[in-house]
Amino acid sequence: MDKPTLLHAIRASEGRILVSETIAMTQPLLNGVTNAELAASMGADIVLLNMFDCQKPLINGLPPGCPPDQCLAELQRLTGRIIGVNLEAVDPHHASQHGEMWQMTPGRAASVENARRLIGMGARIIVLTGNPDNGVSNAALADAVQALRDAVGDQVVLVTGKMHGAGIVRESGSAIISEQDVERFARAGSDIILIPAPGTVPGMSQQRVADLIACAHQHQRLAMTAIGTSQEGADRETVRQIALMSKMAGADLHHIGDTGFMGLALPENIQTYSIAIRGVRHTYTRMARSVNR
C-alpha cells in the first residue's frame, strides 16, 4: 500500500486499528522471538518501534546474521505488519542530560536525514513524540513535522503528539495538548494527531479527549489515542475501560504502550484491547492469519 491507500484503510476500519509499541533495544520477552512478533500474534495491526536508533540499527530477537540496514524489512517480513518508528523532537531550550535508558541518541532525533534513512529501511509510519525527561515540546514537534512534511511527506504517514510530558512539566497533565496544538500539528503536515487516551494522563477525561479528536477531525486529520503511562501493564479491566473510552471519544487508531514488562505491553492486554474495540472474530482472524497469505 502507498500512503493514501494506508490512510484510507485506517479510515475505513472505523476505529478498529490497534497499534502496539515495543522497545527495539531491550531483550525480548521470549527467546528467539522479537517483541514485535509477540505483539502481532496477540492482535496488533501495526507495530511501532521505540528506542530504535536508525544510525545504529538494532532489534533484539531477529534471526542471527540479519544485516542492520535490513532489520526493518526483516521485521516486516516476519510479522506481516505495517512497521512504524518513533523519532523525538527535542526542544533545545528544554534538552535534558540524564542517565536513564531513555537518554537521546542522534539516530532517534526527528531530523529529515533520519526520516529518509527510516523510509529507505522500510518504515511506513513515523511517529514524532518523546520519551521521558528528554525535553520534547509541542513547538519542537510542530517544527519537526513541518520539516518532514516538506522533505518526505508523500512517502510516509506522519503522526505527531505526546503521550506524557516528555520532560516538560508545563506541557503535562491537562496541559499536555490543546486545540491550538492540534491545529498547529495539522497545519504543519501531520496526517494523524496523537492524543493521550482517556484515563492515562491527569485531566484527560473521555470528554476532553473527544473534544481534541473532534478538533483533529475538523482539520481533516485522523486521531490516535495512546497509552503511554505504563497502564499497558494494568489489569485487563482497566485496559478494557481505556479502550472503550477511547473508542467512544472517536479514536481512529488505538495505541498501547511498551512497558507493561519492559519492552512490551502485557501480551494479554494487547489481546484484551483488541477484543474490546472489535470483538473476537476480527481479533482471532488477525491472530491466526498466516503472513504467507
Could you explain how this protein is built, in words?
- The structure is a single chain.
- The chain is of the alpha/beta class and 293 residues long.
- It has a single domain, classed as Aldolase class I (TIM Barrel, Alpha-Beta Barrel).
- It contains 9 helices and 8 strands.
- The chain has an 8-stranded parallel barrel with strand order 1-2-3-4-5-6-7-8, surrounded by 9 helices.
- Helix 6 (179-188) links the parallel strand 5 (157-160) and strand 6.
- Helix 2 packs across helix 9 and helix 5 runs parallel beside helix 6 (179-188).
- The protein is globular.
- The two termini are 16 Å apart.
- The mean pLDDT is 96.
Keywords:
about 290 residues; alpha/beta; TIM Barrel; 8-stranded parallel barrel; about 15% strand; globular
Q: Would you kindly provide a brief summary of this structure?
A:
By secondary structure, the protein is α/β, with parallel strands linked by helices. The chain is 38% helix and 15% strand. The chain contains nine helices and eight strands.
Which whole number gives the mean pLDDT? 96
Number of domains: 1
**CATH topology value:** TIM Barrel
- Major beta sheet summary: 8 strands, parallel, barrel
CATH class: Alpha Beta
Helix content: 25-40%
CATH H-tier superfamily: Aldolase class I
Spatially, the strands of the biggest sheet line up as: 1-2-3-4-5-6-7-8
Shape: globular
Series of H and E elements = HEHEHEHEHEHEHEHEH
Poorly predicted spans: none
Distance between the termini: 16 Å
Compute the number of helices.
Answer: 9
